[in-house]
Structures are given as C-alpha cells and as structure tokens.
Design brief:
Chain B: This is Binding-protein-dependent transport systems inner membrane component. Chain B: Its main location: membrane. The complex is a heterodimer of chains A (436) and B (326). Chain A is globular. In chain A, the strands form 3 sheets. In chain A, strands 2-1-3-11-6 form a 5-stranded mixed sheet. Chain A has 436 residues and is α/β, with parallel strands linked by helices. Chain A has 19 helices and 11 strands. By secondary structure, chain B is mostly helical. Chain B has a domain of 215 residues: MetI-like fold. Chain B has 13 helices and 2 strands. In chain B, helix 2 crosses helix 12. The chains are: A alpha/beta (436), B mainly alpha (326). At the A-B interface, helix 1, helix 2, helix 4 and helix 18 of A face helix 1, helix 9, helix 11 and helix 12 of B.
C-alpha cells in the first residue's frame, strides 16, 4: 500500500503546483535590495523601447507608433498588448515589476493605479518642466501625481455622462433633468406615454466590480459628500454620503432602477439602453458612437442625447474620473527615449488623431473647444464639463483593498443585505485602517 | 531512495542502476513539485510591503512573521472569509462530484449501449469536457444573465450572478455540465473491459437489469470509478476559473480557497496567499490520502499488478514502482 499512498500524495502535489506558482513568483518581491533613492532619477539612455498597453482596438496606437519609428530609426517603439480586462493588465504589470524585468518601458496605467505603482517604486518620477501640463485638464494631471510628485502623463481621460432618450422626453414634454428628483419625475411622465409604459427609468454600473466604486462615488459626491477629504482621511460615515447611497438604494426599492441592473457592467447597460428598455443611463462617452450605429444593432440610434450627471440639489452632478496615463517603468532601459515618446504621444496632433480614431476623451483642454471636433463629437462640451468637475477616486497605495471595501459596502446596501447606515459605518472603519 | 538492498551484491548493483535511471525523474519532480512547495511554505512565513514610510514609499524587504499568516486565517477578521471559502470549496466538491458520478455513470451506460451513431453520441457527450473552462464560464454567463435562456425557461427573473444560493447553483450546474462527461468517459472505458459472458451467465441465472447493474456492472467498474472520482475531487477542490468568470471576484457565495489565495496575491499580500495555498494543499493531500486508504483508489494499479506478477515468477521485487518520495 505504500506505493498507492505516495502516489496519492504525489498527485496532490501535482494538483497544487499550479496554485503555488502564484506565490513562488513573488520571491524576488521582498528579497531584492531596497529600490533606489528618493531623488528623481535622471532619465537616460536612448534606443529601442516597448509601450505596454491594453488592446489597441482602433489600431491608431500602432499608426502613431509607426510614424514615430519612421522618424526615429534608432529609437524604435514596439507595442506590447496586454489582455482586455484592467485587472489582468495590472497583474501583468505588477508581475513584470516584481521580477524587475526591463522588457516593459512605457506603461499605460489606469488612473487609479498611480499611487500603487509610485509608492512601490515601480515607475520613475517624471520631470514636470518637460511637459506643458498647464494645457492639460487639471483633474487628469492630478491623477498622475502621488504625494505632489509627477509619475505619469495623462493620455486619455474619461467622465460619466447621463444618456437620455430625447425622443421620449420631447414627447412627454419634459426637459433633460438636472437633479435626481427631476429625473424620477421626468421618468414618470415618460412612463405615462402609451408606448413607454413598461420602460425602466435609470441604470448605471452596479455589478460588484470597479464600476460600482465609480457609481457609488458619483452618488456620494453628487449629494455633497466625499469618500476621502483633502488630507486623504475617509469621510463616508456622513449624512451626505448616506443620502447619496440611499438615492440608489431607494431607486432599486422603488423600481426606478430595474432589479436586473445589479448585474450590469458597462456593456450590459448598453445592451439594455440600445434595446430601448431605459430612459436614462449613466455611462462613459465611448458608447455614444456605438449606440448611434445604424446597422440595426441599436434601436435608439439618433434618439438619444447626453447631459451632465444629475445632482442631489445645488450644482451639477459630480462624475468619477476615469482615464489612462503613461508612466516609465523603473526597471527599463532607454528612459530618455521613453520620455520623448510620451511627449510625442500626448502632443496636440497625436491627441487629435486619437480622438478621431477611438473617440476616447483627450487630455488637452483645447481640443474640447475645437468646433471641427465638436461637429463630429457633439458631446465634447458636456464631457469637458463632466471631467472638469469630476472627483478622482481615492488615491491609495492599496487601492485594490480600498475599492473592494467600497464595493462590498455599496453592494450590501443596494441588495438590501445591510441598511446603508450600517454599511457606511463599517466602510468608514475599514477605510480608516486602509488609508492611515 | 527506493532501493531495498537486501539480496547481496547483484541486487545492490541493480538497485544502483535503477536509482541512476530514475534520477532524471527525481530531478524533474524536485524542480516542478519540490521547489514550488518549499518556496510557498517559506513564503507563507513572511510578510512584505505592508507599511508605507513618511515619504509615501512602500517599505521594501520581507519580515519573518512565523505562523502569523496561519493564525490570521483561523482567528481574527479574516477568519470568517477563510471559513466561508473553505465551506464553499467543500460544498461544491461534495455536491458536484456526487451529481457527476450519477450523471456520468448514466452517460457511460448510454454510450456503451448505443449501437447506431455510436461515434456521434460519444463525441456529443464529450463536447462540454473539451471546451476550456473559462470559455464555458462565459457561455453560462450568457445563459444565466438577467434576460438569458435560463430565466426564459423557468419563466421568472432570477438574478443568478448576484450573491446568494442562486450563484452557488449556477456554478454547480455549469460545473456538472462540464465535467460529468469526464467521469462518463472513464467509466465507459471500464465498462468495455467487462466480458459479455458474465452478463449472459447472470441472465441465465435470472438476474434482472437492476440486479445486473448492482451486482456486476458497479463492482467491476468500481476501480475505474474510484480513480475518476478522486481526479474530480482533487480538481474541484482547486476550482477557480468557473466561479471567477461566471459570478465574479470577491463574491462571498462562491469564493473558493483558490480564489481567496489569488485575491490575496493580486493585492500583493504574498505571505497570506502562500499560507492559504499551503492550507489548501494540506486539505487536498488529506482528501487524496483518505481516498487511497478507505476506497483503495489505485491510480497505477494495473501496471503495478503486471510488474508484480512478472517479478513473482523470478524472485522478490527489487524495486517497488510507485514508491516515490516527492
């Protein structure tokens, strides 16, 4: 029997190898030498580099890179595409940093990763005076900073918009709503129309993922609350924050938000909106072009418009800030080339071509007021307003834990597992621990 | 070493030769099994990067914390999450494997009996097994979404991917769909080596189909079935991709131990992640051992039996195959 016993053990061991690989990959994480000093290192070295990014769906990144390569034959840039999901991208970037590999040079970072990458010294500080940052959207530049230092340059920005069915609103004789109360009232009037009796009022992104953090933050900020204050201390256990969360909780209870919206990510919402099931939807601008497609995929093409997010009283609603920044890996060679390429990629011409090709929001303020671009992207002025008044999500070294805590509290409140007061009290305690 | 040098010089030389011939295997096993195990065990005793200095930089270097990572698992704020994941893992394993055995055996009987279109029937039953888990998870996500096929069939709106029993059910349905064919396939192989004359004898003795199944088919197919179940149990204890893709990360109702370890690792807490992985390893090892001891799962039994008989004809075995100190 000795044979079969050890055989069993061996199989168990094999079964676990895949799992343990997760942890043994981290060996070099702690045992290496303390990484560098605090002074911003000089960005030196010229030669071939890589740019590591999510999917280049429009192929415009490749086009811009080809142009650069033609002009800089000795400093060629190669694009490295990572998986589509943000989590998977972050994981690969982190793993690359853990082994201190020089294979990634320029990193395309989500705005919420800046603190983690900077605090771990995975990306280098960038010289502020090399960039004309005053021409960038201020909130976008803010997302590239950690403790007052610049670690990245904003390439894409993003802000939430309120998509609404202009055809139905016109028929019901109501204006696009500015507040949440106006929104619910407008929806009731639309529902009184015979053709829209069964229509849902509103949705955002409420599945337990990053989108829920975004939507929760918007609800809290639009109600006059904050998640963290100026000094980074958590402030979610306040009447304002509770009012914001309660707005969504009541929305689910009263049916203003359809029950199934608790399972919605961005694309589920789009499917529902495009099928004509909703009057209002909180959504990113990238869906404008998709929902306007006249190839039969959307039943609402030409029938909707966008407005700023609704508020809970005075002032406009507050969006959460999205977007991506370019940073330079601390372990890369040829950092001087990387710096030049980032400048090239964020200049006026590149940003314009990016907007035209991808409809992703640019980070240069000027482009939003360009009449020619405005003709093609009529939502640009509203998007500018959304981004300029947007609040960043908390800057945290352990952002993954912070956003998880927020999602758990919001999800528990929205599904009725906890009342919003309890959920926020517990969240406050957790955040105090995570952000101290 | 695996040599039993009791039979004089000739035996000792043969033993050394055997050891020499086997040593590449040991080296490979040591690299791919031994090293990760030891590295994970070591990692689970350390913590890294959990503090931030005055300038906002993460303090580098690792700190030996002894068994703290393990202690935190069983008591303290993380304990509830651990026990929940442990419970989910066990629950999924017991329920899905039980269901898979019943369905898999039924499938095997059908495949065995099918006379016409035998190839098509077998291929059809094996399709779910051939689809990568992540892909089938996305497939089931479509089925289980709010306006999906599942809700259309039952005629009410169940939000399958939200927290609660429905999420557990969704995961188990998808898992059973995917892996019952695996058991079916192995059992079919077992069925095919049962000689027909046994059944004929039973029929002559007047045994009905039910009696035949329980008195002939099941006992004779049991060695194969037990091994199939062992494979499935070990597999299900490590379940990760299906609940992760189908329901999502950090959903209490379906979080398994592997997901927990992954989540810790992705939040850069490698010490606790390694501790979770080690505990899971221990759990899997114990279950495997119990299977082997109680149910006599004999993974390479036939090969051993054959060798043993060969050897018995000459002399006592010099080397016991399968004795490997991994």
């Amino acid at each position: 029997m000795a044979g079969s016993k050890t055989t069993g053990l061996r199989m168990a061991a094999l079964a676990c190898v895949g799992l343990l690989a997760v942890s043994c990959g981290s060996d070099s994480g702690g045992s290496g030498s303390p990484g560098g000093t605090n002074a911003a290192p000089a960005l030196e070295g010229r030669g071939e580099i890589t740019m590591v990014t999510g999917k280049d769906t429009s192929n415009n990144m490749q086009r811009l890179t080809d142009e650069w390569n033609a002009q800089h034959p000795n400093e060629k840039v190669r694009i490295v595409e990572l998986p589509e999901s943000a989590d998977a991208q972050r994981q690969q970037l982190v793993q690359n940093a853990q082994v201190k590999s020089d294979s990634y040079t320029i990193l395309n970072l989500d705005v919420v990763w800046t603190a983690e990458f900077a605090a771990n010294r995975w990306v280098v500080e960038l010289p502020r005076d090399e960039f004309d940052l005053e021409n960038f959207l201020k909130p976008a530049v803010d997302t590239a900073e950690y403790r007052g230092r610049l670690y990245a340059v904003p390439v894409y920005s993003d802000g939430g918009l309120l998509y609404y069915r202009k055809d139905l609103l016109a028929k019901a004789g109501v204006q696009p709503p500015k507040t949440w109360d106006e929104l619910t009232a407008a929806c009731q009037k639309v529902k009184a129309l015979p053709e829209a009796a069964a229509i849902g009022c509103y949705t955002g992104q409420f599945e337990k993922f990053e989108g829920l953090t975004v939507n929760f933050a918007e609800a809290v900020n639009s109600a006059g609350g904050t998640i963290v204050d100026e000094s980074g201390k958590p402030t979610v256990d306040t009447p304002q924050a509770r009012a914001g969360l309660d707005k969504l909780v009541r929305g689910f209870q009263s049916g203003v938000i359809p029950q199934k919206a608790i399972t919605f990510k961005e694309e589920d919402g789009r499917r529902s909106f495009q099928a004509g099931e909703l009057v209002f939807m909180r959504q990113w601008p990238y869906q404008w072009a998709l929902a306007n497609k006249t190839d039969g995929s959307s039943q609402v093409a030409g029938k909707f418009d966008v407005a700023p997010l609704p508020s809970d009283g005075a002032g406009p609603g507050v969006s959460s800030l999205g977007g991506h920044n370019f940073a330079i890996s601390a372990f890369a060679r040829n950092k001087a080339t990387a710096l030049d390429f980032i400048k090239y990629f964020t200049n006026d011409v590149s940003q314009r071509s990016n907007l035209l090709a991808t409809s992703q929001a640019p980070t240069r303020t000027k482009l939003y007021d360009d009449p020619e671009l405005g003709k093609q992207f009529p939502y640009l002025p509203i998007l500018k307003q959304s981004i300029l008044s947007a609040k960043p999500r908390p800057k945290a070294v352990r952002y993954g834990d912070v956003t998880t805590a927020i999602q758990e509290a919001a999800y528990a409140a929205l599904t009725g597992a906890k009342d919003s007061g309890t959920a926020l009290r517990e969240l406050q305690v957790k955040l105090q621990d995570l952000l101290k | 070493m695996t040599v039993l040098p009791r039979r004089g010089r000739a035996a000792g030389e043969a033993g050394r030769l055997a050891a020499l011939l086997l040593s590449p295997t040991f080296v490979v096993l040591g690299l791919v099994v031994g090293y990760p195990l030891v590295a994970a065990l070591r990692e689970s005793l350390y913590q890294t990067g959990q503090t931030v200095d005055a300038e906002g930089f993460v303090v580098q270097g690792e700190r030996f914390v002894g068994l703290d990572n393990y202690a935190a698992m069983f008591s303290g704020p993380a304990a509830a999450r651990f026990w929940n994941a442990f419970g989910n893992t066990t629950f999924f394993t017991v329920v899905t494997v039980a269901a898979e055995v019943v369905i898999g055996v039924a499938m095997a009987l059908v495949m065995h009996q099918a006379l016409r279109w035998r190839g098509i029937v077998r291929a059809g039953i094996l399709v779910p097994w051939a689809i990568p888990t992540a892909v089938s998870a996305i497939l089931w996500q479509w089925i289980f979404q709010a306006d999906g096929v599942a809700n259309a069939i039952i005629g009410s709106q169940v939000l399958w991917t939200t927290e609660g029993w429905q999420a557990k059910a969704a995961v188990m349905i998808a898992d059973i769909w995917k892996t019952a064919p695996f058991i079916g396939l192995l059992v079919l192989a077992g069925l095919q080596i049962i000689p027909r004359d046994v059944y004929e004898a039973a029929r002559v003795d007047g045994a009905g189909p039910v009696r035949q199944f329980f008195s002939i088919t099941l006992p004779l197919v049991r060695p194969v079935l037990v091994v199939a179940v062992l494979f499935r149990v070990l597999d299900t204890l490590r379940m990760f991709d299906l609940p992760f893709v189908l329901i999502g990360n950090r959903k209490e109702s379906v979080e398994t131990l592997t997901m927990l370890a992954w989540d810790e690792a992705s939040n850069l807490r490698f010490g606790p992640a390694a501790a979770y992985a080690t505990v899971l390893f221990g759990y899997v090892a114990v279950v495997a051992l119990v299977f082997v001891k109680l149910l006599g799962a004999d993974v390479i039994g036939e090969a051993r039996e054959r060798i043993r008989k060969d050897r018995a004809r000459k002399e006592e075995p010099l080397v016991r195959p399968g004795v490997v100190h991994a």
